Amino acid sequence: MIFEFMKQHSAEFPVEKMAQVFKVSRAGYYKHISSTETVTSQYNSQLLDKIKLIFKNNRGVYGSPRVYEVLKKLGEKCSRKRVAKIMKNSGIRAKSVKKRFKVYDKACKDLARIAPNIINQNFVAQGPNEKWVSDITYIQTHEGWLYVAAVMDLFSRKIVGLGMSDCIDTKLIVSAFDQAICHRAPQSKFVLHSDRGSQYTSLAYKQVATNNKALLSMSAKGYCYDNAAMESFFHTLKTEHVYLCNYQTRKEATLSIFEYIEIFYNRQRMHSTLGYLSPVEFEQQVVGGAKNNGE
Q1: Given 1, 163, 208, 274, which is the most exposed site by the fewest CB atoms within 10 A?
Q2: How far apart are CA 119 and CA 173, in angstroms?
Q3: Is 107:138 a contact under the CB 8 Å cutoff?
């Protein structure tokens, strides 16, 4: 305790003077300091090995907050600041590529086809199959554009439906929606939110949605925040994965994106909004826990 006090105040008082006051030897103090620094150095080295393994196992996309959360789950007792410092000193940084490019689909001008904004930026759901959101994005390949439509369950942020094609048409979004219906089999009415693009306002899409108990909701014109959850997902998909790849063909891109979403995003990647659980883990804990409690 005395040596630690001396160490903490060594910038304020001479070590020799403090040693005299506390009646301890300077040699003992320096031996203690040397021993402490050796233990700290060894611990940091061991921690670095664990950080490198976690970083590698999560495709190099985890920054210090998520690495710290994994360490906590493993029972490691360390501070988030220490993890951040070790990663910074070792040059370990999350892989992320940003590009300023976006293609916009033409919004429907027929107001009769536009559904009201039921979601109204309330992206919280109390249970599965209560609120779904959908959108389309564009992936560049050397063969041409690959169009990706996705459906997300807002309860767990899980991607429950996925469609990919070289054509941006109603068939694309219907295929994603059909996949979501097949996977989730909702038993009651639910909200299905999207923008007001021509595909989502088509009569064919509306009919399919109605036949499957979906109540359509649509964003305001040109207001991306009304579908922020999907915008966030596509941003993550591109900056953490797509922009790090160089797709030669649409087939290559399709397989790569499917693998990222199904294997990593849904089942492994931590989400801060879910208490640093993956969507699958969140559903297993919340839904599974409710069933075990007889709810």
Answers
A1: 1
A2: 19
A3: no
- CA dist list (Å): 268 to 18, 112, 263, 282: 53, 42, 7, 11
User: How far, in Å, CA of 163 to CA of 207, rounded?
Assistant: 18
Distances (CA, A) of 32 to 4, 29, 36, 181, 223: 9, 5, 6, 65, 62
Q: Name the one residue in this structure whose structure tokens are 């301890």.
A: 24
Q: How far apart are CA 275 and CA 154, in angstroms?
A: 15
Handedness of CA 84, 158, 277, 45 (dihedral sign): negative
Cα(22)–Cα(2) distance, integer angstroms: 7
- How do the pLDDT tens digits run along the chain, 295 residues long? 787 787 777 878 888 888 888 888 888 877 777 776 667 788 888 899 999 999 999 999 999 999 999 999 999 989 999 999 999 999 999 987 776 545 555 555 566 789 999 999 999 999 999 999 999 999 999 999 999 999 999 999 999 999 999 999 999 999 999 999 999 999 999 999 999 999 999 999 999 999 999 999 999 876 778 999 999 999 999 999 999 999 999 999 999 999 999 999 999 999 999 999 999 999 999 876 555 554 5
